Each structure stands twice: as structure tokens, then as C-alpha cells.
Amino acid sequence: MIKTRPHSSRRLVAVSNRTSFGSPSAGGLAVALSDTLAETGGLWIGWSGKIFDMPRRRVHLTEEGGVSFALIDMSKSDYEGFYLGYANSVLWPVMHNRLDLAVFDSDYLAAYTAINQQFARAISDQTAPSDLIWVQDYHFFLIAKQLKDAGCHRQTGFFLHIPFPAPEVFRSIPDHRLLGEGLCAYDVVGLQSPHDCKNFTRYIQEELGAEQVGEERYRIGDHTFTLRLCPIGIDAESFSQSATSDAAENAARKLAKFLGDRHLIIGVDRMDYSKGLPQRFEGMATLFDKYPVLHGSISFTQIAPPSRSVVEEYAQLRQQLDELSGRINGDYGDLDWIPIRYLARGYERDELAGLYRLARVGLVTPLQDGMNLVAKEYIAAQDPDDPGVLVLSQFAGAAEQMKEALIINPHDRDAVADSVLTALNMPLEERKRRWRVLYDGICRQDITWWREHFLSAFDSAPAGT
Ligand code: ADP
After folding, report:
1. Which atom belonging to ligand 1 lies closest to the Cα atom of 275?
2. Structural domain for 84, as ranges
3. How far, in Å, from the CA of 47 to the mean position of ligand 1?
4. Which of 88, 373, 450 to mutate to test the pocket of ligand 1 (most atoms within 8 A of CB)?
5. Is residue 179 part of a domain?
6. Structure pTM?
7. What is the DSSP string of 360-380?
8. pLDDT along the chain (465 residues), means of 10
């Protein structure tokens, strides 16, 4: 039995596919984890990012910025089966409700199980029973169960960054019970939204016979775990400061030169089929179609760098967006007006903050999203005296917190078009009122709140059950 001490006095061990090693300035999550890891003399276990032709899963121990790292190499076949296969071609599409894109292949599951096992072994070798093990995301559903099966007693937590779909959808994964039981073997499970919690509890109750034994407590067999609603946040104050940095102002100045006196509508996403980009472009076409008065007076800029472009679906999406933006510009553009600008590249955080601040409308319309941090960044970057308006998909986890945004159905082109018009016409006083509520919310439930809210679940969870 593990003795429970407050989480703050225990060593934290983070486990995730990618770590911050080699890019210590990377995003909010990396910073939030690194801070606690550095404070508690912690360890971060993850993939080294290296792929070898021959089977080779060596663990390298190293250190950076006061944090220890255990980095695991992968073979080419591990990478193909575990990462491109099970993670990207089974879990990502199914959890985002895209069963049509899922490829069920038993070799993928074998690779997924083997890599989870490899990580479990590294945890067992590199940690002590008093450590807190915090596993991030869908790459590692199986680790807690594998640790138990190996007789390695650790307190383990798991946070799912992506949505948990309806049980009917989750059940279509041939190995769903293995995954569901894997999740329930953790001591703490964190999910992004009330909707995810509902889906998850319905699944474990209907399918695994779980019984609710406390407000956040569920029991399956002789194991009891805590389910914690824990929406991830951003470092709102620091992001807000970034929006007035030199780099932000330079980026905004460049874009403003092109804009002239037109209003900017901005979209910023990884290029992923879950982000609803074609639907968004169609929504903008509907806007231009329905409201010719707007021609020449607004400009939509979509920033979407290719991601996972090795996978076929991403190449198709890229082609679809190229065609759509070409068609819309051809149909509606003029000698002195390009309605849609589509930039297939990434920008630095400060530059993005400057672009968000310049935009009168932030268009965030994923078809399915665990949280969507762009929505929060857009709000953080606004000028309090002249804030823009957030148009947000009802299917982003963020919509359950950010109710003062204009919430829309991203499949409904008219709703996208009409909400952009509403945002453009919104009086300053209403923009300020909505923005203030949203900004206070993202400051209150920021990334530090998220980390502490998750980790404090260990304090109330009886250990070793
Ligand atoms: P996801 O995790 O699915 O990509 P989120 O919206 O939650 O979606 O997080 C995306 C993160 O990536 C945000 O911090 C955002 O600033 C960053 N990002 C998205 N698009 C770009 C881009 N074009 N250039 C740089 N960063 C980007």
C-alpha cells in the first residue's frame, strides 16, 4: 500500500509521447509540466523523437532546465504501428467521431501494446513507489494496467486531451474493452468537458459494470478510481502580454498593411480534419454570397500549417483547402480584394498573439475538439478597450466554459455566415462585456489551475486501491 502525502511534496513523473526536451520554450502544457517537474526534482518520460531502421528501444537518461528526462527510441515498425497506426489511424479518428477514417489492423494494436509496455517498463525502472505518475493522452491507455500486471505499485493519473466519444462510437473499436479497462486501472482519470465525462461514465457503467461510489469515484471489481473534470487552460496572463510584444506588433503591422481599413477575421489551426476547415471556408463563401455589402470590407485569413502530412487524409485535406480558397477568391475576389488568404505555415507564439489581437473576429469552428486552446488564446490576446468577438463551435470542449462566445454549429454554413455578421456588427459595449467574462474565466481556470486541479485529486484518492 502506498502512503498518501500531499501531491506537492511528492516527486512528479510525467509520461507523454513527446516531451519538451530540445525545445524548452514549447507551449503552455510543456511549461506547466516543466515547472512542477523542476520544483519536485521530477522526471519526464517520452519518445526521443528518433526512429531507427532496426528494432531498438533504448532509454536515454538526460537532463535539461532542471528536469530529468528518460527518452525512448522507436524502431521504424514501432513508429508505423504505434504512432501512425494505432494512435493516428484508430484512436484519433474514432475519438473525433470519424469512424469512416479509422483503419482497424491487428498489427497496429500489437505495436501499441508493445510501446505501452516499453514505457511501463521504463516507469518501473526509473521511479519509486512514492512517485506520482501522470500520463498524458491517448497514446498510453494501457500503462497503469500493465504496471499492475507486472506487480509494480505506483499511483497513476491519466489525462485525456482529446474528446471521449459517445459509447456507441467508442464500442466500434474492436479492442474497446482493453482500452476502457486500461483507463479505469488508473487512480485518477481527467477529462476535458462535462460532455466527455457523461460519455465516459455511460460507457464504463454500461460496458464494464462500473459502479459510482462517490461524487467523483467509480469502482470496477476491487479497484476504485477518481474521475475528475479538468478542462485544460492556457497561461492567459503571459499570452496577453505576448500580444503587445515587439514580435506581435511587427506581425500585426505587416498584416495591417495588406488589410488597409478592412476588418480581419482569423482562423488558426493545425491542418487536421477535426478542425472543420472546409466547412469554415464554405461558411465564408455563404457569407460573401448572402451579404454582398461585405465585399471588399473584410478579409478572412486562415493560418493552418500541415500536420502529420505523411498520412493520406492530410494530403487530401490540403488539396481540398487549396481548391476551395482558389474557387472562393475566383468567385468573389476583385482587382483590389482577396476574400480568403490561406497560409499553410506556422507562426511563433508572439506573432500569433499579435495577429489574434488585430482580428475583429476569431473563427474557431472545429467539428470535434477536446478543448481548443486557440479559442482561449484569441481571447487572451484582445485589447480590453476594443476586443474582438469569438465565434466558437458547440463541439469544442471550450464551448462548455466559454458561453459568452457566439456558439454555433460548424456544419451549418448559414450559422457560420450569420454569426460572423453578428460579430462584425456587435456594438463596442457588448463586445467589451462578453470579452470581460471570457477573459476572467480563462485567467481563473488557467494552465496552473488545471495542473493543480488534476494533481489535487491524488490528495483525496485513497492510495493503492
Ligand atoms: P490541437 O491541440 O488539436 O492542435 P489546440 O487549439 O488545442 O488544438 O492547440 C493548438 C496549439 O497550436 C495552440 O497553442 C496554437 O497557438 C498552436 N497553433 C495552431 N496553429 C498554429 C500555427 N499555424 N502556427 C503556430 N502555432 C499554431
Report:
1. 3
2. 7-233+448-460
3. 21
4. 373
5. yes
6. 0.96
7. SEEEE--SSBS--HHHHHHHH
8. 71 94 72 84 93 80 93 93 95 97 95 97 96 97 98 98 98 98 98 98 98 98 97 95 98 95 96 95 98 97 79 84 96 96 92 98 98 97 98 98 98 98 98 98 96 94 56
